[in-house]
UniProtKB/TrEMBL annotation:
PTM note: Cleaved by autocatalysis into a large and a small subunit.
Active-site residues annotated for this sequence: T363
Stated name of the protein: Glutathione hydrolase proenzyme
Family: Belongs to the gamma-glutamyltransferase family.
Pathway entry: Sulfur metabolism; glutathione metabolism
Binding site for L-glutamate: R88, S381, I382, N383, D405, S434, S435, G455
NCBIfam families: g_glut_trans
EC number(s) stated in the UniProt entry for this protein: 2.3.2.2, 3.4.19.13
Domain of life, source organism: Bacteria
Keywords: Acyltransferase, Glutathione biosynthesis, Hydrolase, Signal, Transferase, Zymogen
Length: 554
């Protein structure tokens, strides 16, 4: 009855008939400030999203950038239209299924992770152009201006930048153009030192002036392809020319009266999130003891991630049984296999012919709402921190290593442990399976714009975030909630320090769960929440990162 009321309220309460507050949450204060400036100049949420993505490409270049890809979930207030811009990278035309294997069929160490051979054809520059021309109000010249300034004049190294540089310095040193810019005089910069990227400023200017042609054609593209080839990559000018942004119908579902609008394939995020929510909707989680609740959550994670491994890939290349996976019958069948007091070993589930898929330790997410109710949830990535490490000379653009998100060889889980199958094998022009899950949640009272980086754990973070939203928690509590995770294989519960108390851990172990405590926290969730009745906004940036949330009252 409570849920029925929520659905009725959700249907009749207007959401954008008045000017409400605006809200922005990004992973870096300079990106939040830049996006806020764009809103102040009269730009809408879509323009502000361009500004935020470009600013993050400069100041958080280890997570995303022009050399990468991503997904932008959009809600247009004037007609309620919703879409997902798919700016995911594609495999070059010369890519082959076994390109990362040696003659004996063994994976070549780091081949899918380092250097230009690891890089898919970038989607971000095309997506920024597409967003401006189809949804924005401002020319790219204006929405890109803050990023161009940050790249040219520089910005101070912060603790997150310093930590990431230290973590990947060995890779960065292999590529002279990259180390010249990021490790001046061969040294790690100190916190507070200025990083300037004049070449990136020029590339952003080309994009501002010529739109996608500034990046995917002409002299710039020729130089980039020549540099990639000279360093062992396989890009061609046609790969760049043929790159297309795609609009995808978002994945939609409902959980306890909350409307869930989320990422479509080639992200696995939306389908896996809704499979978990569909299974969980039959349990009375608030009334359950912590161990029982966690057990049910983990068992649904296990089953949904198994389906991810078997069925999901680029929908333009593989037939995904979306309706079946999201149907009530499938949820009921999977739920029937869950025992209330006993873990199901992953090995007892129907086996998947395993392949490989990268988790990615990095990526970025931002959430933006403008005063008219336009919304953007964007999750963007170059995959592992600093991507492939390779920067074509003169471009200032770090290329992704997103090719590692494909299954590079059936049967061998990679360093991150996610398994895949035939559906995610490498093919020319195909988009690699992702876990990025930009999401909108809406109930009778509130609308949330939510997402996070975090590789394979992104989807379970969104699960926990959705459940926190269902419990009425505010933005700060949602993004700062302690996290646990299960992904089918490896068959163990990973959990952040203090995520689960000693009694819960004891009971979970007694049920047969294997426990895998993690030293480090994970994720960097950004949330913007609109109160539909008052028009006020609550926004928060995950305390695990250095990001910033801002609200603007109108
Ligand atoms: N590269 C991380 C992801 O797309 O899931």
């Amino acid at each position: 009855m409570k849920y029925l009321l929520a659905i009725i309220l959700w249907a009749i309460v207007p959401t954008a008939a008045w000017a409400a507050d605006a809200g922005i949450a990004t992973a870096h204060p300079l990106a939040t400030t830049a996006a806020k400036e764009t809103l102040a100049k009269g730009g809408n949420a879509f323009d502000a999203a361009i500004t935020a993505a470009a600013a993050l490409a400069v100041v958080e270049l280890y997570g995303s950038g022009l050399g990468g890809g991503g997904f932008w979930l959009l809600h247009r207030a004037e007609d309620g239209f919703e879409t997902m811009l798919d700016g995911r990278e594609t495999a070059p035309a010369a890519a082959t299924r076994d390109m990362y294997l040696d003659t004996t069929g063994e994976p070549i160490p780091n081949a899918s992770l380092e250097g230009p051979l690891a890089a898919g054809i970038p989607g971000v520059p095309a997506a920024l152009d597409y967003l401006a021309s189809h949804y924005g109000k401002l020319p790219l010249r204006e929405s890109l201006a803050p990023a161009i300034q940050l790249a040219r004049e520089g910005f101070p190294v912060d603790k997150a930048m310093r930590r990431h540089l230290a973590f990947r310095q060995e890779l960065l040193r292999k590529y002279p153009e990259t180390s010249r810019i990021l490790l001046p005089a061969g040294k790690l910069p100190d916190i507070g030192d200025t990083i300037r990227q004049p070449e990136l400023a020029q590339t952003l200017e080309l994009l501002a002036e010529k739109g996608r042609a500034g990046f995917y054609a002409g002299e710039f593209a020729e130089q980039m392809v020549a540099a990639v080839k000279a360093a062992g990559g396989i890009w061609s000018l046609d790969d760049l020319k043929n790159y297309r942004v795609k609009e995808r119908e978002p994945i939609r579902g409902e959980y306890h009266g909350i409307k869930v609008t989320t990422a479509a394939p080639p992200s696995s995020g939306g389908i896996v999130l809704l499979e978990m929510l569909n299974m969980l909707s039959a349990y009375d989680l608030p009334k359950a003891a912590a161990a029982q609740r966690t057990h049910w959550q983990v068992e649904t994670m296990r089953r949904a991630y198994r389906d991810r491994a078997e069925y999901l890939g680029d929908p333009d290349f593989v037939a995904i049984p979306t309706q079946r996976l999201l149907g009530a019958d499938h949820a009921a069948r999977l739920r029937a296999s869950i025992q209330d007091d006993k873990a199901t070993p992953s090995a007892d589930l129907k086996p998947v012919a395993p392949g490989v898929s990268g988790r990615g330790m990095n990526t970025t997410h931002f959430s933006i709402l403008d005063k008219d109710g336009n919304r953007v949830a964007a999750t963007l990535s170059i995959n592992y921190p600093f991507g492939s490490g390779f920067m074509p000379k003169g471009s200032g653009v770090l290329l992704n290593n997103e090719m590692d998100d494909f299954s590079i060889r059936p049967g061998t889980p990679n360093v991150y442990g996610l398994v895949g199958a035939e559906a995610n094998a490498i093919e020319p022009g195909k988009r690699m399976l992702s876990s990025m899950t930009p999401t909108f949640l809406e109930d009778g009272k509130r609308i949330a714009i939510l997402g996070t980086p975090g590789g394979s754990r992104i989807i379970t973070m969104l699960l926990l975030g959705t459940q926190a939203f269902a419990n009425g928690e505010n933005a700060s509590r949602i993004v700062n909630r302690r996290r646990f995770h299960h992904q089918y294989l490896p068959d163990s519960i990973q959990y952040e320090p203090e995520a689960l108390d000693a009694d819960t851990l004891f009971e979970l172990e007694s049920m047969g769960h294997s426990l895998s405590p993690q030293d480090d926290a994970w994720g960097n969730m950004q949330a913007v929440i609109l109160d539909k009745q008052t028009g006020t906004v609550d926004a928060a940036s995950d305390g695990r990162g250095i990001g910033q949330a801002a609200t603007v009252a109108y």
